[in-house]
Specification:
16 helices, 32 strands, alpha+beta, 648 residues, 34% helix, 4 domains, nine-stranded antiparallel sheet
């Protein structure tokens, strides 16, 4: 017998909505919707504009920074330290020193290492395992030794040592660590190749003085660095003066030190770098004191003299009064030579070849003299002349100056950067010689083509569009349809006959083919303006005619002022199409001095294909006019597009 208070199975209860009690006002919901809408608009706009933003920022970066990985988004300058009294600048890095403090340093040497084992010591631990029973290898530090560790099915970690047919020969990590050691990779590679058989397993080994070892990897690299103040101790020496190389321990690695043949044998030096250098001197000095003479007037063989480590040929000339003058041969062009008296050559020095890219050429009395403008040296810019022959020189620093050296993992080095926009990318790109022309020539050509096309379009389209919109004539609609049908003809069909017409008229390789057709109208722009004219109330025209205005005055004083949005739309489209046009200028023009910006940019890219900073700057200058024009006239542009379809 059941009682009234006996519990009954409870019905399923509805799920509790945690937001049920959250009540938003209508104003709050509206603000949330607006916030979400604007967020989506901003994200979409950023995604659309990202390529342009990247290109804009890249146009202010140095060349090396554009494609570096990981990317450097904001244009920056890599901080350098001057190498002694030379014009060489050495890049600085940030790294934690042995005391745990961040320090600015530069590198003076690196050495790569790998892990090796005495395979005979592992004879009892070797087994063959199918590859599918092993995981991918991961480089791990196990007991201070770097190993490529794999996980084995069923548990345990192993290291693969060789391949046995379709299987891998492995050994437990514990066994490998006990006999593994780190060795310099150059020392291992210098060993003679050897094959070692352990039971049925065959291993590829290296025969070293210490015994036969099997390289396992992974490879690692340690870099020796010194504080930036050490840069002041660097000086140049000829590479042939380096002698007796020996390795000396620096922290966990070794650094190769040399003696110099012209220094005491107990003094040792670190080779910081071997580079190609070029003799230079101030351009003002070369032009003021240098002069040209026939090469045949140079007597006999020259005496090679050294001027601030730059070795140049010196000739002794006999003057008309019988006195002699020693002159330095700077450069030769054909039968002429450019020389400067030894007593007047005060600024001869060496410059790293890497700082002398893309020099200009100046002709001085029949001799071509290479030079650089805005050559930066110790924070100052001036022009220098490039003379003489290239020479290899070694930068060294005394062992006594590297007492604070320490070693770090190479991947721990971080560049020392500061934000700086490199505006000279634009001046350098625009001043580059492109087959006898510069970008300013291309801009002038494009500006002229755009101006003539605008003139032709307005003169031809306005009266035709007004005629189709307002004037009465038999067959007007048929002619309008015929005009529109010309828009359906594919451009390639018209290209060959158009080319032949321009060829017969002698217009090829001139700017005429790029604008002359605009004076004969445009079906698209005629349709666009006709639609706008038809949206203008006829009452305005009738009022003007009552006041005595003829058709031309009605067009000029009534229709055109009211059609400003449509006219600006036509102007924007005309500017846009002709400024960005590439195919027609490429087909009709072959003279570089008649190139427009698009063809000029393509030609520039072919000539300076690896100078990405100049390519970005040149590319930005070609699209900036379009962007500026659209933003200044976007209201009229959008309004014109909207209103042209109101009446048909």
């Amino acid at each position: 017998m059941t009682t009234e208070n006996q519990s009954q199975p409870s019905a399923a209860r509805p799920a509790i909505n945690p937001l049920r009690g959250l009540r938003l006002t209508k104003s709050a919901r509206r603000r949330i919707r607006l916030a979400i809408t604007y967020l989506l608009l901003v994200i979409g706009a950023f995604l659309m504009a990202f390529p342009l933003i990247w290109m804009f920022l890249a146009s202010f970066k140095p060349e090396w920074q554009i494609l570096t990985n990981p990317p450097i988004w904001i244009p920056s300058q890599w901080i350098h330290v001057q190498a002694g009294d030379t014009t060489k600048e050495i890049a600085l890095w940030k790294v934690d020193n042995p005391e745990g403090k961040e320090e600015r340093v530069f590198t003076i040497g690196t050495r790569r290492y790998t892990t090796v084992v005495d395979i005979n010591a592992l004879a009892d631990a070797l087994i063959a395992v199918p590859p599918e029973d092993l995981s991918e290898a991961k480089a791990q530090d196990v007991g201070g030794v770097m190993l490529n560790v794999r996980s084995q099915k069923g548990g345990g970690k192993v290291v693969a040592l060789a391949r046995d047919g379709s299987n891998l020969v492995v050994a437990p990590v514990e066994a490998v660590v006990a006999v593994a050691q780190r060795m310099p990779l150059d020392m291992v590679n210098a060993g003679k190749r050897a094959n070692v058989n352990i039971g049925d397993f065959k291993f590829q080994a290296r025969e070293l003085d210490a015994g036969i070892v099997v390289p396992l990897g992974p490879e690692s690299q340690l870099t020796v660095v010194v504080p930036k103040t050490t840069g002041a101790e660097i000086f140049l020496v000829p590479p042939e003066t380096l002698a007796d190389p020996q390795f000396f321990p620096i922290g966990n690695t070794d650094l190769q030190l040399y003696t110099l043949t012209d220094h005491p044998a107990d003094e040792r030096f670190v080779q910081v770098g071997l580079e190609t250098w070029q003799p230079v001197l101030d351009m003002d000095e070369a032009l003021e004191y240098g002069y040209t003479l026939p090469t045949a007037d140079l007597p006999g063989s020259p005496e090679m003299r050294t001027f601030e480590l730059a070795t140049l040929p010196v000739y002794r000339l006999t003057q008309d009064d019988g006195s002699t003058q020693d002159v330095i041969l700077l450069t030769q062009t054909g039968p002429n030579s450019f020389v400067i008296p030894v007593d007047d050559a005060k600024t001869i020095r060496l410059s790293p070849l890497e700082k002398l890219s893309y020099p200009f050429v100046k002709t001085v009395n029949g001799v071509s003299l290479r030079y650089l403008k805005d050559y930066e040296e110790q924070g100052k810019k001036h022009s220098i002349a490039i003379v003489g022959e290239r020479i290899d020189m070694t930068m060294v620093v005394p062992q006594a100056a590297i007492s604070e050296a320490f070693d770090v993992k190479s991947d721990s080095l971080k560049r020392v950067l500061k934000i700086k926009f490199r505006y000279q990318n634009y001046t350098e790109a625009l001043s580059r010689d492109v087959g006898g022309a510069t970008f300013m020539t291309f801009y002038k050509n494009s500006a002229l083509v755009v101006l003539l096309n605008l003139t032709g379009i307005y003169l031809s389209v306005i009266p035709v569009a007004y005629g189709f919109a307002r004037l009465q004539a038999p067959g007007k609609n048929t002619m309008f349809l015929l005009l529109l049908s010309t828009m359906m003809i594919p451009f390639p069909v018209l290209l060959i006959p158009t080319y032949e017409i321009f060829k017969s008229l002698g217009m090829l390789n001139t700017l005429w083919p790029l604008f002359i057709r605009s004076f004969f109208g445009s079906a698209f722009f005629t349709f666009l303006l006709r639609q706008f004219f038809m949206s203008v109330p006829r009452e305005l025209e009738e009022a003007a005619r009552i006041d005595g205005a003829n058709t031309l005055r009605v067009l000029w004083n009534v229709m055109l002022p009211l059609s400003k949005p449509a006219l600006l739309t036509i102007g924007i489209f005309t500017f846009w199409w002709n400024w960005n046009s590439f195919f027609e200028p490429f087909v009709y023009v072959s003279n570089i001095k008649n190139f427009t910006v698009t063809v000029g940019l393509a030609f520039f890219k072919g000539q300076y294909v690896y100078n990405y900073h100049w390519l970005m700057a040149a590319g930005m200058t070609t699209i900036v006019p379009i962007i500026v024009l659209f933003f200044l006239a976007q209201r009229y542009f959008i309004e014109g597009i909207q209103l042209t379809g109101l009446k048909g």
